[in-house]
Write a structure and sequence with these properties.
- It is found in: Membrane.
- By secondary structure, the protein is mainly beta.
- The chain contains no helices and 22 strands.
- The chain has strands at residues 6-13, 22-29, 37-38, 43-49, 58-61, 64-65, 73-79, 85-87, 93-96, 107-115, 120-131, 138-139, 144-149, 157-160, 163-164, 175-178, 187-190, 195-198, 211-217, 230-236, 243-244, 269-270.
- Strand 10 (107-115) and strand 11 form a beta hairpin.
- The protein is rod-shaped, with a radius of gyration of 42 Å.
Length: 289
């Protein structure tokens, strides 16, 4: 029925013995449905303590009235759009969707609408101020670059991490990984002590690889440190002695004049740095070679 319309309805009432019937006119006037009324419209502010506001905690109640006592439904948008808050569709309670110790934003703007079956009231702005926010864990000494001799032996300490968190909630150990997973076996990560060590002797051969990149992070149970803070490990060249293909060589040679009989030892010698090699032969019991 269109709002503002008026209808006259004639009603007759009679019994079997009464005549004429009693008549009465019923006047029906159609009035417009009134929208819900939100208290504190158009805006309000609430302040919460991040350290004490758990997931699904109620932080605000959108109070309202509806002239016809219609059922009212609520919807909400938020900025920044991090999906950190929800609103009860039928009750208007604003709740946190996360434990606020995971929040990194100091202020949110929630825009709320209330609708009955006919009308919608939009544009109610709730500002949420977040105090006492959790501090993101960090490493005091990353990013960093260190140089390690290629002769470093097993358990040689390459680096000691210094993690820092002013408000640690759930103590956790750091976690480190090489950017090339194949290099993981070359390092030992002693996280209880925050140390990165050489895993075994001759693990860091400069002639094989010069630089390693290690990413480290850690969490307080809610926030995680910046994963781009890396440790760069440069392998320092150490001049290593030439290496023979064997420790002993044997050769049988027949008697003969000088420059005559000969035999091949089939010996090879390699220098790790590919430097030039000078080979000399020293004898112990026969000076005629």
């Amino acid at each position: 029925l269109p709002a503002g319309s008026t209808y006259n309805i004639d009603v007759e009432c009679k019994s079997n013995n009464d005549w004429p019937p009693t008549k009465q006119t019923l006047k029906v006037q159609v009035i417009k449905n009134q929208p819900p009324v939100i208290s504190n419209y158009k805006s309000d502010t609430v302040t919460i303590d991040a350290s004490r506001t758990a997931q699904y905690a109620i932080i605000y109640n959108v109070t309202y009235t509806d002239p016809e006592n219609d059922a009212v439904a609520f919807t909400m948008t938020q900025s920044p759009n991090l999906n950190h808050f929800i609103i009860g569709y039928g009750d208007g309670y604003v709740r946190t969707k996360i434990d606020m110790r995971s929040a990194t934003v100091g202020s949110y703007t929630l825009t709320i609408s209330a609708s009955d079956p006919v009308n919608t009231v939009s544009g109610f702005v709730l500002t949420v101020i977040v105090n006492n926010r959790n501090q993101i864990p960090d490493f005091n000494n990353l990013p960093a670059t260190v140089t390690v001799p290629e002769t470093a032996i097993k358990d040689y300490v390459i680096f000691t991490l210094v993690p820092v968190d002013l408000d640690r909630y759930v103590p956790q150990e750091p976690y480190c990984v090489t950017t090339n997973l194949a290099d993981m076996k070359k390092f030992t990560f002693d996280m209880p002590n925050g140390q990165i060590r050489v895993a075994y002797n001759n693990a860091l051969d400069r002639e094989t690889k010069i630089t390693y990149t290690i990413m480290c992070s850690w969490s307080d149970g809610f926030l995680t440190s910046d994963p781009t803070e890396i440790l760069t490990v440069n392998v320092d060249d150490v001049n290593e002695a030439p290496v023979w293909s064997s420790t002993n060589y044997y050769c049988n040679i027949n008697e003969g004049i000088a420059g005559g009989p000969s035999c091949s030892l089939r010996a090879t010698c390699k220098d790790p740095e590919n430097d030039r090699i000078t080979v000399t032969v020293a004898t112990t019991n026969n000076q005629n070679l």
